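Listing S7. Sequence submitted for prediction.
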Amino acid sequence: MHSLEVFLESRHGAARFSTLTANGFRRTEIQRAVRDGVVCRPSPGTFALPDAPAELLFAAANGVSLTCVSGAKVLGWWVVGEVSQMHVAADRAAKAEGAVVHRGPRTGHRLIATPTQII
Protein backbone atom coordinates (compact mmCIF):
# COMPACT_ATOMS: atom_id res chain seq x y z
CA MET A 1 0.00 0.00 0.00
CA HIS A 2 1.29 3.46 -0.91
CA SER A 3 2.34 5.63 2.09
CA LEU A 4 0.18 8.51 0.84
CA GLU A 5 -2.80 6.18 0.71
CA VAL A 6 -2.14 5.07 4.30
CA PHE A 7 -1.87 8.70 5.43
CA LEU A 8 -5.14 9.65 3.72
CA GLU A 9 -6.87 6.69 5.36
CA SER A 10 -5.72 8.02 8.73
CA ARG A 11 -7.40 11.32 7.77
CA HIS A 12 -10.68 9.57 6.85
CA GLY A 13 -9.94 9.75 3.13
CA ALA A 14 -8.97 13.32 2.25
CA ALA A 15 -6.48 16.07 3.04
CA ARG A 16 -5.39 19.46 1.77
CA PHE A 17 -2.06 19.84 -0.06
CA SER A 18 -0.69 21.91 2.84
CA THR A 19 -1.43 19.06 5.25
CA LEU A 20 0.34 16.57 3.02
CA THR A 21 3.47 18.69 2.62
CA ALA A 22 3.50 19.54 6.36
CA ASN A 23 3.63 15.78 6.97
CA GLY A 24 6.61 15.19 4.71
CA PHE A 25 5.05 14.34 1.35
CA ARG A 26 6.85 15.93 -1.60
CA ARG A 27 4.98 17.46 -4.54
CA THR A 28 6.46 14.89 -6.92
CA GLU A 29 5.29 12.02 -4.70
CA ILE A 30 1.75 13.45 -4.60
CA GLN A 31 1.70 13.98 -8.37
CA ARG A 32 2.90 10.41 -8.93
CA ALA A 33 0.10 9.04 -6.70
CA VAL A 34 -2.47 11.00 -8.74
CA ARG A 35 -0.97 9.82 -12.02
CA ASP A 36 -0.99 6.20 -10.77
CA GLY A 37 -4.64 6.48 -9.74
CA VAL A 38 -3.91 5.91 -6.04
CA VAL A 39 -5.49 9.25 -5.13
CA CYS A 40 -7.62 11.80 -6.96
CA ARG A 41 -7.77 15.58 -6.90
CA PRO A 42 -11.48 16.41 -6.43
CA SER A 43 -10.91 20.17 -6.02
CA PRO A 44 -7.92 22.52 -6.19
CA GLY A 45 -5.56 21.78 -3.33
CA THR A 46 -7.44 18.68 -2.17
CA PHE A 47 -6.28 15.09 -2.51
CA ALA A 48 -8.48 12.15 -1.65
CA LEU A 49 -8.97 8.43 -1.88
CA PRO A 50 -11.56 7.43 -4.48
CA ASP A 51 -14.04 6.43 -1.74
CA ALA A 52 -13.57 9.53 0.46
CA PRO A 53 -16.76 10.76 2.16
CA ALA A 54 -18.55 13.51 0.23
CA GLU A 55 -18.69 15.58 3.43
CA LEU A 56 -14.89 15.77 3.57
CA LEU A 57 -14.67 16.79 -0.07
CA PHE A 58 -17.26 19.51 0.57
CA ALA A 59 -15.26 20.80 3.56
CA ALA A 60 -12.03 20.87 1.57
CA ALA A 61 -13.59 22.63 -1.42
CA ASN A 62 -15.16 25.29 0.80
CA GLY A 63 -12.27 25.90 3.22
CA VAL A 64 -14.23 24.82 6.28
CA SER A 65 -14.08 22.00 8.86
CA LEU A 66 -16.81 19.47 9.54
CA THR A 67 -18.29 19.86 12.99
CA CYS A 68 -21.36 18.95 15.00
CA VAL A 69 -23.30 15.96 13.63
CA SER A 70 -21.43 16.00 10.30
CA GLY A 71 -18.04 15.62 11.97
CA ALA A 72 -19.42 12.96 14.30
CA LYS A 73 -20.85 10.99 11.38
CA VAL A 74 -17.56 10.93 9.45
CA LEU A 75 -15.71 9.86 12.60
CA GLY A 76 -18.16 6.99 13.01
CA TRP A 77 -19.72 8.30 16.20
CA TRP A 78 -23.31 7.48 16.99
CA VAL A 79 -25.73 10.28 16.02
CA VAL A 80 -29.46 10.60 16.50
CA GLY A 81 -31.25 10.25 13.17
CA GLU A 82 -30.09 11.27 9.74
CA VAL A 83 -28.22 14.48 9.04
CA SER A 84 -30.32 16.68 6.74
CA GLN A 85 -27.68 19.41 6.28
CA MET A 86 -23.94 19.42 6.72
CA HIS A 87 -22.62 21.32 9.72
CA VAL A 88 -19.29 23.10 9.27
CA ALA A 89 -17.05 25.42 11.27
CA ALA A 90 -15.58 28.54 9.71
CA ASP A 91 -13.48 31.32 11.23
CA ARG A 92 -14.27 33.83 8.51
CA ALA A 93 -17.15 34.76 6.26
CA ALA A 94 -16.92 31.51 4.32
CA LYS A 95 -19.80 30.62 2.06
CA ALA A 96 -20.90 27.03 2.31
CA GLU A 97 -24.11 26.75 0.33
CA GLY A 98 -26.40 24.09 1.72
CA ALA A 99 -24.60 23.82 5.06
CA VAL A 100 -25.18 25.13 8.56
CA VAL A 101 -22.14 27.30 9.30
CA HIS A 102 -20.97 27.51 12.92
CA ARG A 103 -18.74 30.54 13.40
CA GLY A 104 -15.69 30.18 15.53
CA PRO A 105 -12.09 29.12 15.30
CA ARG A 106 -11.37 26.63 12.58
CA THR A 107 -8.46 24.36 13.36
CA GLY A 108 -6.05 25.33 10.60
CA HIS A 109 -5.92 22.77 7.83
CA ARG A 110 -8.12 20.17 9.54
CA LEU A 111 -11.10 19.00 7.51
CA ILE A 112 -12.75 17.68 10.68
CA ALA A 113 -12.94 19.82 13.80
CA THR A 114 -11.45 18.58 17.06
CA PRO A 115 -13.61 16.27 19.20
CA THR A 116 -14.17 19.09 21.69
CA GLN A 117 -15.42 21.40 18.93
CA ILE A 118 -17.66 18.67 17.52
CA ILE A 119 -19.35 18.11 20.86
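Caption to Listing S7: primary sequence and predicted C-alpha coordinates for the chain studied. The mean pLDDT is 88. The chain is about 35% helix and 20% strand.
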